[in-house]
Write the structure tokens for this entry.
Amino acid sequence: MTAALVTDALIMAIWRRGKPVALLHHSDQGSQYPSQPFQKPLAENGVTYSMSRSGKVRDNAAMESFFSSLKNERIWGKVY
């Protein structure tokens, strides 16, 4: 996954949904997320950025649980 790919996805999401009133972006420590090309549109659109700390697997537990529930309850089994 490249910085260009995640940056394009972020810009497309903001373009399709409009500038967010309040948005939190949580990620792991992949090199694409703290890169300047990705951080710039976050800052320009008022997105709060959150990153798991190195070696602290529990930082990500709440987000993993949320996405697991989302996939099980809303995404899998539906045709979009």
Notes: The longest helix spans residues 3-17. The mean pLDDT is 81.
